[in-house]
Amino acid sequence: MAALVLALTLTGCSGGVERREVVVTGSTTLLPITEVSGEMYAEHNEGVSILVSGMGSSAGIESVSTGSSDIGTSSRELKDAEFELGLEDTPVAYDAIAVIVHPDNPVSELSTMEVRAIFSGVITNWQEVGGPDLPIGLVNRDEASGTREAFSKIIMDDAQFDRGAVVLPGTGQVRSVIADIKGAVGYISLGFVTDDVKAVSIDGVEASEESVVAGTYPVQRVLHFFTKGEVSDVAADYIEYVLSPDVQDTIVREAGFIPITAKDGSGE
Amino acid sequence: MSEPLKTEKAASSSGLKMMSRATYFREAALKNIFLLCAVLAVAAVGLIFVFTMARGWEVVKDPGLAAFLGGTEWSSSLGRFGILPLINGTIAVTLGALLLGAPLAIGTAVFLSEIASPRMRSIVRPAVEMLAGVPSVVFGFFGLVMIRPVVAELTGGMGFGTLTASVILAVMIVPTIATLTEDALGSVPPGIREASYAMGATTWQTIYKVLLPAAKIGIIDATILGMGRAIGETMAVVMVAGNAPQFFKGLGAPIATITSQIVIDMSYATGTHKTALFGLAIILFLISMGLVALVRALSRLNTKKA
Amino acid sequence: MGKRWANRIALGVLWLCGITTVLVLGAVILYVFVRGIGQITPEFILTRPYGVNAEGGIGPTIVATIYVTGLAMLITTPIAVLAAVYLAEYAVQGRLVNAIRFAADTLASVPSIVMGLFGFAFFVEAMGLGFSVLSGALALSFLMLPIVMRATEEAIRAVPRFIRWGSYGLGASKWQTVSRIVLPSALPRILTGLILAMGRAVGETAVVIFTMGQAINMPFTPLDSGRSMTVHLYTLAMEGINMDAAYGTALLLMVMILFFNLSARWLTARNRKVKE
To answer: Is the pTM of this model over 0.90?
Structure first.
């Protein structure tokens, strides 16, 4: 291991004729794809290392535009100001955001409007949406989260999140808290929904791969790889690998995302 | 390091004569090297202040000093950076920590210094010292998995918030307060104790009427430093506070502190937002320096009186 | 009877305080131990984390932790010890000494998050060291400096005066006295201070998270980035993805801290025995 790192450092210092390192920074949502595919890619290509860190979509976009990363991953679209950065977009997967509640919560369907009212603190008791008399415990993500960004854009419109919501910086923690607290509600990527929690239908559409591919499930988004200018050969090859069936039909699917190839039928 | 060693060798080879001119210069040079090292501590504090200032002072331009110090809303997406909710959160968890932790710590210190048998002392004192060594993430983790569910049960909320943070902080400030209080009690002259016992006072009367008043300033110092620890503690708080930058809404409601907001925001902050975070750091720095100055002023007062 | 009963109740409460403190420590240690012990395998300690749930081991984080702590120690020790020598042996009470002490006290009480932000602004960005072990070590050395300084100063002051007089009487110069007589006899206590400061550095999170980075990486040169055990534990706990590994990491951290603490105690105890 040490020898490998030494080799990397040496090639890095010798003027970078051949870069054997791909730095991938960005969305934590994409970590299951980037980390696992990075490891597998490095296994197949000796001497290459894929350095993955999850700092949030904004950090990913920022770091690829300043050149500190080769690939910036993002679970949201570019903001207006970011279009000027001249980034190249490669969509890699679809992700749907599920609104999750405690499994014992009888509420199993909400409208977009109801979800918005709940998360902006207008509706504070499950009674108001046809559930039991139980106060709603709001769980939100931190503002660095791409999931929060997407959820806010798709669901919240102009409404503000209730400031009293518990802010948790990780998907797993949101899930485990909601699995633990009867009145709690939150949102996570569909890929991370387990039996510990219940995903409610939105506007009458169940949150599932089928409904996402069909385009009927309202809370969905595209996951991106962003690059800038000329990409190193290793990085380009790695991106190609991520788009190949090797990754799309295995890693992406296992992580609960929907392959980007699924919609044109080539992945099915 | 290598420099003094070399000179030392040279000095020894010249033998142990009366101080020669060379030895004199060597000694003077060494003294100045040591002085330089000591002054580095001052330089370090200056450097910290200058660099956090350099990165944070622009809060006076944007969002503006009034909006920063007097703002009631902290929201990066709206570009509002008012620190009042964070100050409020810091005060809430610190007060909670002091209410729970200070009596426990002072009680432990009195126990150690006045009551415990040497055997008991040899168990409790190491425990206090080791408690000081437990990393704050471990406390935070413990709070997250152990205390949070209990608090959720008690308050009917989700367990993230003021109460959980206060409990964890209380445990964390016990070593600071207990150790310094024990020192203060130890420096009370034994004659005073003996006089009290000789007059027929019970142990408790001696503690309450004689020792605690005599060690008062030391105990106040200890509590202030414990308070400083609670205000500055970061990781443990961020893991259990719920991090909602809102004003105190009850023991079970989530809250954010100055320190927790910095950690949550730092990974993605840019521009004004980042400046505002450094502004928070300046405030923390000034608070901790102010508390140290207060403690020093108090002890000076104490020595003057004595 | 009022007096006796008040006494009994009060003493009972004080006993309770002492016992509670011990129980709290016991609870934390026991809980982490029980939940974490099943995780500790050679594989967990040696291999690196992989996959969605950070399965596998935490090897690189242990290396990064030891690396950054060791480097910080190398930076801190000479400066802190020499500064303490000045304060204890050379300094004349006055405004300068007062300022130095005030600075050391302030440095000791600066919240670690402030140290982290400062380290980020100064070492990572201004000095261009990037997220690296070196940045982390430099920032940590600021944190350790006052601890080691104070321990060393107290250790030097505890060396009896007459030993020094003996040395001066034989014609030794000040530095000869300090280096041959005072520092060797103060050594065990200085070491104790060093060990405790190292324990503090190992457990530190807020400083290293903003100076050494968060990416899991096996650091080789001091300019490599890395993720410390504390940052790993924080990430695992906050992501909530692999709580088993979090317990395992917490246990290993506690074991390291306890090791530092116990060796410090052992040194102190041995030193006392030798003196008697």
So the answer is: no
